[in-house]
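Whiteboard transcription, Tuesday session. T.W. wrote the structure tokens on the left side:
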């Protein structure tokens, strides 16, 4: 079983993750992991925090000579902003917990629900962990998963396809490094220019913008996931992973919500067979690469909707946790638009779920064993 846990607060000393279940023999490119972390920090519309932090992962255990040992992999990302917060966020009794107390919950955040649930008098104890800062370590975890997928020639890429109602019109395919020459990680250059203008207008108004990300996965084989139990259906697992990203409020696979308004003849993908090296395939891909809880050999296409960031420079109305008096909500440092960052996080969590499904099907205590099982399966598929 491939699994991981994360720990750490937004202004704490560091973010941590422990991964278990990776096969031995997998070469990890730390520079590539750090490259994905840098992309998460980039994208037009990010805030001041991104100029403070320079996320770099350190692998503390489970790796020797750049190759996994099969034992748990420990990852850490140091928070550079800790230097300004260590007296307040210290874990010991010396922490100055009476300073910078937050009692005014911010609309759209976990502040109030978490404060009531965990009986906190200082909402900082909620927002520090609920913060999207936690996604940095999840991107590092997902980047490790991508290393495994790349060994099987499976490629995952997150893209921006809408911001503030402005839609991109690009094809559903991966674009590689040329995608990141665009400041919004959007494959439609013309639409990107209009998106940037919309972000600037929102910034002037003290407002924020959301959008839609798309995650495209190529080279995904038939049969990842399963139809036999509800919790093994791959689309459910992917949706859960994407919905766990802060501010994501909706997920669709393939034609998704559009298919609800169409007749079946315009939704379902007809099947054909290519006798020489092709095997079974579909004439279209409205299903988005999944049918019946399993991958169907086509490109996997998922979209996720991100709401506007709820921390605005023009404060929204709130009520003090203690006095119950109305106040303008506390403002923490924030972005105007973090949809490009969400695309990278979406890529990472998708890669993780696919890596889980790969190891469930093909197993292997060493990468060589995994690849042997995988290649034998491909021979079976293409010799039917």
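and on the right, the sequence the group agreed on:
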């Amino acid at each position: 079983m491939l699994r991981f846990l994360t720990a750490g607060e937004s202004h704490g000393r560091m973010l941590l993750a422990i991964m278990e279940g990776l096969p031995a023999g997998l070469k990890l490119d730390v520079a590539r992991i750090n490259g994905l972390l840098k992309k998460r920090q980039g994208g037009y519309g990010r805030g001041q925090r991104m100029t403070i932090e320079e996320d770099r992962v350190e692998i503390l255990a489970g790796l020797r000579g750049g190759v996994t040992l099969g034992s748990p992999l420990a990852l850490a990302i140091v928070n550079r902003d800790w230097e300004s917060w260590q007296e307040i966020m210290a874990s010991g009794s010396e922490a100055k917990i009476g300073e910078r107390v937050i009692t005014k919950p911010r609309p759209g955040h976990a502040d109030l629900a978490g404060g009531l649930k965990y009986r906190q008098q200082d909402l900082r104890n909620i927002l520090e962990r609920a913060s999207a800062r936690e996604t940095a370590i999840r991107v590092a975890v997902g980047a490790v998963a991508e290393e495994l997928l790349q060994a099987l020639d499976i490629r995952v890429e997150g893209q921006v396809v809408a911001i503030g109602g402005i839609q991109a019109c690009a094809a559903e395919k991966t674009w590689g490094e040329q995608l990141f020459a665009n400041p919004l990680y959007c494959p439609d250059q013309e639409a990107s220019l209009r998106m940037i203008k919309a972000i600037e207008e929102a910034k002037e108004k003290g407002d924020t913008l959301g959008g839609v990300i798309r995650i495209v996965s190529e080279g995904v084989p038939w049969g990842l996931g399963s139809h036999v139990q509800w919790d093994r259906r791959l689309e459910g697992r992917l949706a859960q992973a994407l919905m766990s990203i802060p501010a994501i409020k909706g997920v669709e696979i393939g034609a998704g919500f559009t298919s609800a308004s169409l007749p079946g003849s315009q939704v379902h993908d007809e099947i054909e067979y290519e006798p020489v090296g092709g095997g079974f395939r579909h004439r279209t891909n409205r299903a988005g690469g999944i049918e019946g809880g399993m991958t169907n050999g086509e490109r996997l296409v998922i979209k996720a909707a991100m709401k506007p960031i709820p921390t605005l420079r023009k404060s929204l109305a709130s009520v003090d946790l203690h006095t119950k008096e109305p106040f303008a909500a506390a403002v923490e440092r924030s972005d105007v638009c973090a949809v490009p960052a969400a695309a990278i996080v979406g890529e990472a969590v998708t890669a993780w779920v696919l890596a889980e499904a790969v190891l469930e099907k093909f197993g292997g205590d060493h990468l060589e064993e995994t690849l042997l099982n995988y290649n034998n399966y491909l021979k079976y598929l293409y010799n039917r």
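Someone added at the bottom: The longest helix spans residues 339-362.
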